[in-house]
Amino acid sequence: MKKINFILAAIISFAAIQARAAIVHNNAPANSYIKMTVGGGLGINIPVNNVDVVSVVFQGLQGGGAGGVEASTGGFSTLVNAAGNNVLVLSSGTSVAPSGNFNNVNTNPFPVVVSASVNTGLAGQGYRYIGVKLPDPAAAGMFKYAWIRFEIRQDTFVVKDYAYQTTHGTAIMAGDTGGGAPVVVVDSVDVKTQGGAAAFINGPGKTLQMTAAVFPANGSQAVNWSIVRGTGNAVISSAGLITASANGTIYAKAVSSADNRKADSLLITISSSSVGINEVSDDRFSIYPNPASGWVYIAAKGINTELSIRVMDIQGRCVKSVTAKAGTFGETLALDIRDIPHGIYFLNIAGENISSIRKIELNR
Length: 364
Fold this sequence. Notes:
This protein is mostly beta strands. The protein contains no helices and 27 strands. It has strands spanning about 5-15, 25, 35, 40-45, 50-60, 75-80, 95, 100-105, 130-135, 145-155, 155-165, 170-175, 190-195, 200, 205-215, 225-230, 235, 240-245, 250-255, 265-270, 285-290, 295-300, 305-315, 320-325, 330-335, 345-350, 355-360.
């Protein structure tokens, strides 16, 4: 596999610019992108005073050489991890401050922004930030702090914009454009039932309340709800209340209003009946977790006999069956149900003088 690195170079050039406000925010020029698999350079000019500009050059390289992210001249620095070998990829609201761990990018090895093994998984995940420290040629030993916003679109590195503090030694928050609170980039959406209720609706006309959490928590929590039909059908309100209209399965889907690329969904089962299956308690058994995401544990108290364990769906069909011997007090049996689809099931435990039926929810 080819390793993809970025090289970040800083070149001090000179140009007349107008005096700026406390925070300067500019969009990157059109076509501010490079193909990571092809190479080439991308220059972003950042003014640091009334006459000097730092041109930050991103360069995509192929191969397994000693590349990375560097600044070849000018004393340019980036926020890096503790080891100093990788650039920190920041979320909005993260402080870029003098106290940060900045790497002297004139020194080899140069810190990596992204590669086949560093800061992976960014493609299609929206915008992130790089924190930088800009030298001011007009004030020896003085620095200004900035962020650069970028995203990875498949094999393309795209710069959207940048901002910096005009006051020497003053921190700036990633995403702060000088107009107040920084724009918060949505990372993900998490859909759940309200209060951890079972993802189950007991037939048409019945309801289930859904919730959606948007991360990070300081981002906009607004979402747009919809129903993705499976074998069943339902409608969902703008507040996430599902009203079932036909038995079967559906997905409740929430899409971030701030970024429609970020969404999540949850499988919901609609059924008017459970074919007469009723829970039968037995204090000798403790079953956890419930809801489960892949493994269910059965703690057997004072049981020393062979057990038949069957997982039944709401239609009464056996979808998994195992035989196990529970030992002395406190032994725990592990049941792997990772191969079973989302939904409501009944765990039927049977043995000599033993009959226990417990409802469980599988919800990944």
